[in-house]
Design goal:
The protein is of the alpha/beta class and 387 residues long. Helix content is 39%, strand content 27%. It contains 13 helices and 18 strands. The strands form three sheets. Strands 1, 2, 8, 9, 10, 11, 17 and 18 form an eight-stranded mixed sheet that branches. A seven-stranded mixed sheet has the order 6-5-13-14-15-12-16, with helices on both faces. Bound molecules: flavin-adenine dinucleotide. Flavin-adenine dinucleotide (FAD) binds next to helix 1, strand 12, strand 16, helix 7 and helix 8.
């Protein structure tokens, strides 16, 4: 039970990568921080657990012991076009983790920096006053000068603070599946992505230490045949379970909850803010980055909510939102125009895959692709049969 008379500088709700990274950064800057979560870590989280290299760099954390597999190779299959591509890099393009262990490691670092972990605490509401925020939770109230909502796509905290439900969420399903040793070997060592099976989406195989994480997602809101799609995918891969199989479904928010990500004394970050990548649907690196931006804005301006909001908006506008806006445009092309996708990949598949590899590595941006007029013109010209 937290001391009811204590007023934290910041209470962060949700100990996923967004919340735990934000709490760590705040504590490092000397702020008094509480980190609340409804579950006691380590806890299962429905996720592929694939960390792109960019996310690893943002984390700046020794992941020894939590890494299940490092994939230096990524493969892309366009099943509806009979095309396949492969990208290989000296750095792991995707580092496979189980989220329970990964998130626990990030939380442990935050606690070592002085963050007070309050678990299990399911947050039910927030009350804002002029000088503070009271967070209502199962274990009693917690009072802080600011509250950071990092409680995922369904964020109860955001809703309690007056934001609407995020409608930009898409369904995804993940199966933790044990397969026969020969099959396990067949899919080891690389991250595999398949387009052309799930409508307006893709499927993936991520190798873990002793099993495969296989999933699929669709950008069609409310699509309710993912389980069937997953079974079709397993058949396509000629995989049968061999031991156990556990399926988990959840949603991925691929659009911001609203134009304003801070209201009064409450800031939104990560999935609570709706900041997953609309192209890859990767959310961990954006969760960490938004956690950093919110922490930096709070550290620089904590005496004034108005100045904090202005600064958080400015940081989001310069470092995060434009890239996700461009990603949204690209995603429309990639998912909603399968014919154009097939033609583009037939002509430029390998360079496009190389570019996605560079985005995973944090060395290129979607904006860079669309801004470079030569790339753009070349692509358009070829598609129109002009060159
Ligand atoms: C099937 C699937 C596969 C995915 N695969 C990948 C992948 O491979 N790579 C990738 O980068 N992204 C992936 N994502 C997206 C990724 O999981 C999210 O973007 C990421 O977890 C966002 O982190 P977060 O910290 O914002 O929120 P979360 O990780 O969702 O953490 C939220 C935390 O808040 C806590 N919480 C929730 N409600 C309350 C409450 N009321 N009170 C207190 N605590 C609460 C939860 O227990 C949780 O610990 C996937 C998503 C899905 C659904």
């Amino acid at each position: 039970m937290a001391d009811p008379s204590r007023i934290y500088d910041v209470a962060v709700v949700g100990a996923g990568p967004a919340g735990a990274s934000c709490a760590y950064r705040l504590a490092q800057a000397g702020l008094d921080v509480a980190l609340l979560d409804q579950k006691v870590p380590p806890r299962y989280k429905t996720c592929g657990g694939g960390l792109v290299w960019r996310a690893r760099q943002l984390l700046e954390l020794d992941l020894n012991g939590t890494i299940e597999h490092e994939c230096h190779v990524a493969e892309l299959f366009l099943l509806d076009a009979g095309l396949e591509f492969r990208v290989e890099h000296a750095k792991p393009l995707v580092t496979m983790t189980m989220r329970a262990e990964l998130d626990h490691r990030i939380v442990e670092r935050a606690c070592a920096a002085g963050v007070e972990l309050l678990v299990p605490r399911r947050v039910r509401g927030v009350e804002q006053s002029e000088a503070s925020v009271q967070i209502e939770s199962d274990g009693g109230p917690v009072v802080a000068r600011y509250c950071v909502a990092a409680d995922g796509a369904g964020s109860r905290t955001a809703r309690a603070a007056g934001w609407p439900e995020n409608e930009n969420v898409i369904p995804a399903i993940e199966s933790e599946i044990r397969v026969a040793p020969a099959d396990f070997k067949r899919f080891s060592g690389r991250a595999r992505f398949d387009f052309g099976l799930t409508p307006s989406g893709y499927a993936w195989v991520f190798p873990k230490r002793d099993h495969l994480s296989i999933g699929c997602l669709s950008r069609l809101r409310g699509w309710n045949a993912l389980r069937e799609d997953l079974d079709t995918y397993l058949n396509h891969l000629d995989l049968v379970e061999h031991g156990s199989r556990e399926d988990h479904g959840f949603v991925i928010p691929i659009g911001p909850r609203s134009d304003e990500l801070m209201r009064g004394r409450v800031l939104l970050i990560g999935d609570a803010a709706g900041l997953a990548d609309p192209v890859t649907c990767e959310g961990i690196s954006w969760a960490i980055l938004s956690g950093h931006l919110a922490a930096d804005a709070l550290v620089a301006n904590r005496r004034s909510p108005e100045a904090t909001r202005f600064d958080y908006d400015r940081r989001l506008d310069s470092e995060l939102l434009p890239e996700l806006r461009t990603a949204r445009r690209l995603a429309r092309w990639l998912y909603e125009r399968p014919r154009l996708r097939r033609v583009a990949f037939r002509h430029f598949g390998q360079p496009l895959c190389n570019l996605f590899g560079q985005v995973f590595l944090g060395r290129a941006s979607y904006r860079g692709l669309l801004r470079r007029p030569r790339n753009y013109l070349k692509l358009t010209g070829r598609l129109l049969g002009l060159s």
